[in-house]
Amino acid sequence: MAIETSSLKWIVACATDDIDEEDVIRFDHEGASYAVYRIDDGFFASDGWCTHERAHLADGFVVNREIECPLHQGRFDIPSGKPKSPPVCVQLKTHPVRVENGQVLLGVPAQDAS
Question: How far does the signal peptide extend, from start to end residue (predicted)?
Answer without folding.
Answer: none
